[in-house]
């Protein structure tokens, strides 16, 4: 399914009901989930990365909510709870994102039991319909008691629209434990030449110039393979 050019026409779609079956913290509850689903946390610990998701402390005076961004035309409800969002045979460079979810009132209080719904394009910039592909490159994780979360996927591809290029990005929606929508956003990557003014989707629809949602990536081991590691803090 190629990217349609309808970003400016779409806004938030209400969940309509509480999400169910999200499972225990970090989403390791799906039937058939094998031990490889734990690889993001194992590899992250071995890498010796920072404590994103474990230490919510920051300068309270600088506390701001994470910026909103376009929902896009390819969101589909019902993605399974799983940390490994990209199948092991999915083409592309492996990517591990670790993060924390904290309360906007102080940027320190961790938010546990929240659902983070993630979807993305494949390495060629193509989105895939959920029903026909077993929710390819789609999944949900649940924040732990410390607000931490992690997921393993592949680096999404950038793509061209009729208006111009779009930078590589991950989509994310955050839902409170009761199912209320709290955030719709996109995560971008440092060094992408399509960010900001070069992005074909501009404010007030897309905000790829937001440094708080532009992730610095570093080499690391992901699922037993060489890949990229990134960290993010979401504030709602």
Keywords:
five-stranded mixed beta sheet, 4% helix, mainly beta
**Overall 3D shape:** globular
- Structural class determined from secondary elements: mainly beta
- Please identify the top-level CATH class: Mainly Beta
Radius of gyration equals: 16 Å
Tally of distinct domains:
1
Count of DSSP-assigned helices: 1
Topology:
Elements: H1 39-47, E1 94-102, E2 115-120, E3 138-142, E4 148-154, E5 159-161, E6 164-166, E7 170-175, E8 181-189, E9 214-215, E10 218-222, E11 225-235
Parallel strand pairs: 1-11, 8-9
Antiparallel strand pairs: 1-4, 2-3, 2-7, 5-6, 7-8, 10-11
Characterization of this structure:
The protein is globular and about 40 Å long. Strand 7 and strand 8 form a beta hairpin. The chain is mainly β. The protein has a five-stranded mixed β-sheet with strand order 3-2-7-8-9, with no helix packed on it. Strands 4-1-11-10 form a four-stranded mixed β-sheet, covered by helices on one side. A two-stranded antiparallel ribbon has the order 5-6. The chain has a single domain, classed as Protocatechuate 3,4-Dioxygenase, subunit A (Sandwich), CATH 2.60.130. The two termini are about 30 Å apart. The chain has one helix and eleven strands. The longest helix has 9 residues.
Write a concise synopsis of the structure shown.
This protein is mainly β and 236 residues long. It has one helix spanning 39-47; strands spanning 94-102, 115-120, 138-142, 148-154, 159-161, 164-166, 170-175, 181-189, 214-215, 218-222, 225-235. Strand 5 (159-161) and strand 6 form a beta hairpin.
